[in-house]
Write a structure and sequence with these properties.
The chain is 24% helix and 31% strand. By secondary structure, it is an alpha+beta fold. A six-stranded mixed beta barrel has the order 4-17-14-16-15-18. Strands 6-10-5-11-12-13 form a six-stranded mixed sheet, covered by helices on one side. The radius of gyration is 21 Å and the shape is globular. The protein starts with a strand and ends with a strand.
């Protein structure tokens, strides 16, 4: 089988390996809703990053009268493989949560939803080190040195030099808002606002789920958003211990609309996925094969977002929307994944 190797700019010059495949190899390709898939592609073409990958095909897609033929005629299919042959692909899910809020600090609304801190320094090294285009150096100035920014525990103890968007009544719900990256705040007067990712404190994301499994608190077979939340209810004295295990903190900004991804586009439930941008270019057309909510799912999705926990070649995080059902499915989803990418025939 022929192997096509794409090099991705990063410090270690990591490789993503794509092997040539065909549409006949895509599971249940004939049963895909090709019109919805095409609409997802057209919507993603509103981003200049998607346009750079697919060039004239973005315009050509709007004129297509046969979506299935369009895909089969204009694209080549490549299977994405993990560099570690023993590592299986993984699909997880995320959703847009709703937290309760107050514009003023008062019981029980005592946990601040922070905007980007005034003393947080983000350094873009691209002009000096082009290979680091997907990395940002974050910290704060102490004397004449740039030092690591405050951890989650330090922020909880000392606060921040930052504007506060609002206050919420649950540090646990706020934590999971950070994990999801965006969400909605609902106030007692029934007003609602949207908040989304603004920046991050520069510390590496560490999974509290893996921590709880390692500590023997929850089994690897039953770990989920729901089981973690139940564990917090059962173990209130250990909430800070577990939350502080993840030193990474996300800061927010108020937005005019619901969940949008790294392309700046509003995400489409079950058609938008987050990927490792070091491996897969944002805006890429992907085809996935996985088990979701007990059902086999084979479909085209668009790489429109990223996430701190989304690392690796055959790795994706699917957006499910904002409903209670979305929360349940996303919170429990942990499926083996097979993944393909569709590239213009000009890239052969």
């Amino acid at each position: 089988m022929a192997i096509v190797i794409f090099f991705v700019g990063c410090a270690k010059e990591e490789k993503s390996i794509f092997s040539i495949a065909s549409f006949d190899e895509l599971p249940r390709w004939q049963y895909e809703n090709h019109q919805i898939a095409l609409n997802s592609f057209i919507n993603s073409c509103r981003s200049t990053k998607t346009q750079k990958i697919y060039l004239h095909l973005c315009q050509k897609a709007t004129l297509s009268k046969n979506p299935k033929t369009f895909f089969e005629t204009e694209f080549d299919v490549y299977r994405i493989q993990n560099l570690d042959a023993n590592k299986k692909g993984l699909l997880t899910g995320y959703y847009e949560p709703t937290i309760r809020g107050s514009y003023i600090k008062r019981e029980p609304y005592i946990y601040p939803v922070y905007n980007e801190p005034n003393d947080l320094i983000s350094v873009d090294l691209t002009s000096v080190y082009p290979d680091l285009k997907n990395y940002r150096l974050r910290g704060r100035v102490e004397g004449k040195k740039l030092v690591p920014y405050h951890t989650r525990e330090q922020i909880a103890k000392s606060g921040l030099d930052a504007d506060i968007i609002c206050y919420t009544d649950s540090k646990i719900d706020l934590f999971f808002l950070e994990v999801q990256g965006s969400g909605m705040v609902s106030f007692e007067d029934r007003k609602k606002i949207f908040v989304g990712f603004s920046n991050q404190n520069g510390h590496k994301y560490s999974s509290i789920g893996k921590y709880l499994v390692k500590e023997g608190e929850i089994s690897s077979q039953t770990i989920s958003l729901q089981s973690i939340k139940q564990w917090f209810i059962d173990n209130p004295s250990r909430i800070d211990e577990v939350l502080n295990y993840n030193k990474s903190v996300v800061f927010f900004k108020q937005k005019q609309h619901g969940a949008s991804g790294s392309l700046g586009l509003v995400l489409t439930p079950q058609r938008s996925v987050a990927v490792d941008r070091r491996i897969i270019q944002l805006g890429s057309i992907l085809f996935l094969d996985a088990i979701i909510d007990g059902k086999k799912v084979d479909k085209i999705v668009m790489a429109e977002d990223t996430g701190g926990a989304i690392k690796g070649e055959v790795r994706a995080d699917m957006f499910f929307g904002s409903s209670s059902e979305a929360s349940k499915i996303a919170g429990e989803l942990k499926s083996e994944l097979r993944l393909w990418i569709l590239l213009p025939k000009e890239n052969k």
